[in-house]
Amino acid sequence: MRRVCCVGFAALILALGLTGCWDRVEIEDRGFVVGAGIDLADEEEAEEGQYILTYQFVIPGGLQAREGDSNNGSSSKKAYFNLSSAANTMFGATRKLSYQTSRSPYLQHLRMILISRKLSESGELASVLDVFLRDHEMRRATKIMVTEGEAREVLETNPKNEKLPVMFFESTSLNPTKSSSIFPPTNIGDVQAYILSKSSFALPIIRKHGNEVSVSGAALFDNAQRLKGFLNEEETSGLNILRGTAKDGVIEVRVNDEYIAYEIKGLRQTIQADVSDPEHIRFTIHLELEGNVGETQERLDLLSPHQLAELEEKTEQKVIRLTNGTLTKLQQEFRVDVLDLGDELNRRHHALWQSIKDDWEQGERYFSRCDIEVKVRAKIRIVGSTLETK
Amino acid sequence: MPRIMFRNTHKKRSPIRNSGESQSNTSADDCITRSVHASVASIVRLLNAPDDLVTRFICGAEGTPPCAIVCIAGLADLKMINDHIVTSIQQAYSAINCSEPITGQELYRRLDKQFLSVQKYKTTRSLDEILVSLLSGDTALLIDDLDQVLLIGSKKWTGRSVEEPETEALVRGPREGFNESIETNVILLRRTIRDPKLRFDPYRIGERGKKELIIAYIDSIVHPALVQEVKRRVESIDIDDAPESGMIEQLIQDSFLTPFPLILHTERPDKAASAILQGKVVILLEGTPFALIMPTTFETLMQSPEDYYERWLIGSLIRILRYTAVFVSLTFPSLYIALVSFHQGLIPSKLAFSIAAAREGVPFPAVIEAFLMELTLELLREAGIRLPKPVGQTIGIVGGLVIGEAAVQAGIVSPIMVIVVAVTAMSSFAIPAYSAGIAFRILRFIIMIAASMFGLYGIILIHIMICIHLSRLNSFGIPYLTPLAPSYYRDWRDMFIRAPLMMLSKRPQYMATKDDSKMGSREGGT
Amino acid sequence: MKSFKYGDQEIDSYEVFASVANMVLGFGVLSLPRSIIQKTNSVDGWISILIGGVGAIFFTWIVAKLISRFPKRNLYDIGRSVIGRPLAFLITLMFAVYMLAFVAFETRGVASISRLYLFDRTPIEIVCLVFLLVLIYGVSGPSVALFRLNTLFLPIVIMLIFVLLLMNISHFDIHNLMPFFVTDWRELLITSKESAFSFLGFEILLFYNMILTKPKQAVKASTLGVLVSLVLYLLVFFFSVGVFGPEVTASTLYPTEELAKQVEAPGGFFERFESIFFSVWVLTLYNSAVMALDVSLSAIEAVFSKVKRTALAIGVGPILYLAMMQPQNINEIQLFGDWISYAGIGMGMIVPTLLLLLSMLRGVKGRA
């Protein structure tokens, strides 16, 4: 009898579990959001809220290339659609979006967040990113980029060889392996680290030209997350080299009125700081480049050591010019330390950093006053498979 | 099977009963009388004069006591009876000098010492024993004026020859399997182990079946407490008949509340022999080719003799593959349910999109889909077993391909589900022990239910419960998860991998055998 | 012969090692890096962990010495021999209550984290209830089965931690570890109190003394178990700080889980490793909880010898359920945890030390 009671009791309790599998949402009922764009609302929209959030939803059926359907319906089914809504908080905007679609947004596959220029200039970056970092659904590896115009327009581009615009942006931005003027992709986890440590940082920029996009240049943010300015391609290239992240890129070196292309294959960067005079801190950035001769337009004897040494020297000079240009912009015009020099001081000269860190970029502006010297060593390893083509 | 057969199975195990000499339930006089005719008459009466009971009276010259031969045709070898027993008796009679008076005792003595050309016989006074022996195929030789009866062994049954076991076929290995005749099985074991210490202890099981059961072990290896325990349990079996060793298994196992088999069964003599050499006990039962091996642990369910016949690298990799197959067959459908219904974030993005696209038109949630397909597969399996061979294979192919394909086309299930179910089915066939495969089939459904309620959390909790359950199981005193759980490091060499033979030179440590080493330590041994 | 006793009721040193390690590794490791960094602000927190760990090893050694002095006697019997019956009664009951509170805390912790990382809408009550049912199932059988569970699960858990750390090596930036040796040693000492909380768990030996076969070996095995946990904690701490940097670690609620979130297998195969990580982590949390429950039931059984185990297990269930539903939010859970840690330091560290000293002074020893 007792056994029966116990078993019955257990069955009753277990029946509670059957009342609802609360979290069971089938995969086809999820609205996969693969990209997000955030804009500042302009005047007419501002009554609904200050932010405009655009989500790019995936239509999974559009991703399939089914042979059976080729006779009915066009083969180019759209694989995505964008929805926007305005609200005062990101969370509110997300909820509002669920009025407009049958499948509520599911953010676990979010790959990219685009912030518009205006929003970046307003300094609201941290507040906007808060929901993406706090909510457990997000991943820290979501990438973030700044758009030249409105984010929702950029999300509308129809790329030719990818079905989803956001995937296209992502793979383009992953091309720093091929070009040094693309700032490497940053994910929001790193941005959170920068925000918390009150450092300045840079983000890549994405621009829309008609139906094409280009990713190049860098957007500079100061330690209050306010957009200070953009760097153009050359300056971004210099920045990448200075930071040591230009693992692959091209430097066009002018030799005897013609150009040769120096392809960077490896880069090592070390920073040394001389803090003997706290008012004028000296930094020396040592760069060691390794590369190949990718293309020559001049008739050169590439096997002679003398010639190679000359090429290397010319390359080094070019690099110094490039980086000096970037440094001037960073120190004088924008006054942001995106080179992590402050970090370097924090690590090696902790006591000094504690005393000057509030004045690094503002106030006394130690950053702008310090001397940064760049020393470059460039080596040429391979000259290609032909010696002369002319 | 009528219920009456199990009348004593759940009672507390009774103390030792020797079922060979049970209380008689036949007649009042259980002893043989001196008169041949009266004795034969009582035998015939007790057996109710069946048609196949053969009685033959042989008389000699005047004054010599007659004798009678009783046997059951079909069970006894008539040719042997004629050639050996009848002929010897006739020779004995003709050698008797007519002048001497012969008593029954004297005739018996002469037959025994000079004439009877048979190898073995025993004598008895008990009518019960005579009846049992007759029904087993022996011949009863009754001599007038003698108060004993000779029971001469003369069994000859038609039965299967020694064939390859169907359920345990190997690529490499002997192609002999046990069959229903217990003598053949004993012979097969004797041919493999020629150790003088190999013991075969006989028992008779079943009130009405009286089948012969043999407990086989090697005296100088096995732990004595194990043999005692096995014997105690066998002796306390009290049923009408045991048609298959499975019944014996269920009556002597440690716990009936678990899906996992606690006693292993096999049709292969080499597997049984190697178990005996490990210090385990093997039970053979008349009438079934399946021998029982006890005790069993979880790892023995995953072992196949082929691991040892092939080289160690291959054996180890295939064993690891089997463990993977166990995991897949247990968890794959539930992982599918958990990932697709609860944790879509775990699936890589592109795969998630393609699964979502594939499931667009499917009306059922993933749970129902999974259950439907699994049930269909179980039905197909059951159906395939009972159909005759040519048709059975077709059904397998038809069922698998056509039904799956048609279901996908009709939009009832998604193609991913078909793949999941197919892979699960294939992995479950990779498990060597069929009874373990059944256990996993049951558990798979339970895990699917848990996954459908709580996703990954449910899968983990159910796995914890299964592990707790396994930790509590014992098989003849040995915990089921040996050598993993009570850790015997030396036995880890044969658990997940199969170490090279040179390293497997000792018997399993958990068996606590008397003689540890099986390789290399004896002088001149191999 | 060991293997032929029915229901093999004894355990040996590998099982002790696995059980102590599993018991100590539990809830603490998920939030340990944060609680240390919040106080020290730099990677020097590893020294606090080391101090806490060494202290824990010392007290484990004391507990093991105590139980090897009194073979096959549990806390109640030891207390009775050393300090007399009424005090022993009190201490054993307090121990039982402490262990029950520990179970409630662990379960609630599991529920709240799984709410965060695994589920969205499932109510906490149901998650706790299911966990509690599995706990009761685990406890309603011989204790030996739980030890075997530990030996099964410990390798899985350790492998999981190593997978986690190895896959994060690419995110590891040694620069995040600098600067070091900048924190004041006084702060480090105070912070080691925080880390000591994560090392509690070895006091279960006080009640598992009954089934140890070789109590002398228990000393070595249990200290080894705590040592393994210490090493794992240090590794996790270094990796958290190395991957995230001190500031982010200080502001992430469960840095270890976030480490799991970072894992990116090549080709995007494992995108959300933290769900898998947490699900497998539930294994060690379950082990801690079930052993604590088992020990508390043994304690109550030792004191009130007439009670039957299954009845006790089912009776304690609702009380536990009410207890685990009490904390309303994360702060109250933390507070609950702090109280339990203080109780643990008392019961696990101070009481055995006192008992050992008193038994040595009075010359009381257990019969072998």
Structure description:
The complex is a heterotrimer of chains A (390), B (526) and C (368). Chain A is built from 13 helices and 14 strands. Chain A has 390 residues and is an alpha/beta fold. Chain A folds into 2 domains: 29-62 and 77-231, no CATH class; 232-390, 2-Layer Sandwich (GMP Synthetase, Chain A, domain 3), CATH 3.30.300. In chain A, the strands form 2 sheets. In chain A, strands 1, 2, 3, 4, 5, 6, 7, 8, 9 and 10 form a 10-stranded mixed β-sheet that branches. The longest helix of chain A is centred in the last third of the chain and has 30 residues, at 305-334. Mean pLDDT of chain A is 79; it is low at 66-75. Chain B has 526 residues and is an alpha+beta fold. Chain B folds into 3 domains: 31-152, no CATH class; 182-296, no CATH class; 310-479, no CATH class. Helix content of chain B is 45%, strand content 11%. Chain B contains 17 helices and 12 strands. Chain B has a 5-stranded antiparallel β-sheet with strand order 1-2-4-5-3, sandwiched between helices. In chain B, strands 6-7-9-10-8 form a 5-stranded antiparallel β-sheet, sandwiched between helices. A two-stranded antiparallel sheet of chain B has the order 11-12. In chain B, a hairpin with a 5-residue loop joins β6 (198-205) and β7 (211-218). The longest helix of chain B is centred in the middle third of the chain and has 30 residues, at 312-341. Chain C is built from 15 helices and no strands. Chain C is globular and about 55 Å long. Chain C is mainly alpha-helical and 368 residues long. At the B-C interface, α6, α17 and β12 of B face α6, α7 and α13 of C.
Please sum up the structure shown:
Chain A is an alpha/beta fold and 390 residues long. Chain A folds into 2 domains: 29-62 and 77-231, no CATH class; 232-390, GMP Synthetase, Chain A, domain 3. Chain A has helices at 2-18, 60-63, 90-100, 117-121, 125-134, 151-154, 165-173, 188-196, 233-243, 305-334, 341-348, 350-356, 366-369; strands spanning 31-40, 51-58, 80-87, 105-106, 112-116, 143-147, 186-187, 201-209, 212-221, 227-231, 249-255, 258-274, 282-296, 371-382.
